[in-house]
Amino acid sequence: MNIKQIAKDPLAQLGAGISGIVALLNPEVLLALFDALLASAPQVFSAISVSALTLPQVLPPTSPVEWAVVAAAALFLGYLGRQVYANLDRAT
Predict the structure, then answer these.
(1) Environment class of 50 (CB within 10 Å of its CB; exposed 0-12, middle 13-18, buried 19+)
(2) What is the DSSP string of the chain?
(3) Residue 54 and residue 68 in contact, taking contact as beta carbons nearer than 8 Å
(4) For range 68-80, the mean pLDDT
C-alpha cells in the first residue's frame, strides 16, 4: 500500500476524522503536540534533509562506501527519531 491508497481508504479517513474531532474537543493535547513538534523542528528538518537530499544519491548502494553512508544515515535518522519521540513523550 502506498500513501495514496491509504488516503483513499475509508477506515483511514474515518480514523482521521475521529482524531480531528477528538483534537478539537481536547485542545490541550493538540497544543502539547504542536509544542513538541516545534521543539523538535531542528531534528525534523535534519531528518528530512538526510532522507531527501543525501540518501537518494546513494540508493541503491553498490559499493562499500555507499553502504557506509546508508548505515550512517540510518543511525542518524534513528537518533533523531528518538529525540523527537522524547520531546513528544515529555509534552504529552
Answers:
(1) middle
(2) --HHHHHH-HHHHHHHHHHHHHHHH-HHHHHHHHHHHHHTHHHHHHHHHIIIIIHHHHPSP-SHHHHHHHHHHHHHHHHHHHHHHHHHHHH-
(3) no
(4) 84
**pLDDT tens across 6-52, in order?**
667 777 778 878 877 776 777 777 777 777 777 777 877 877 777 77
Per-residue cell: 38: 516545534
- The mean pLDDT value for 57-86 works out to 82
Quick one: cell of 72? Answer: 550512517
Count Cβ atoms within 10 A of the Cβ of residue 47 and give its class: 0-12 exposed, 13-18 middle, 19 or more buried. Answer: buried
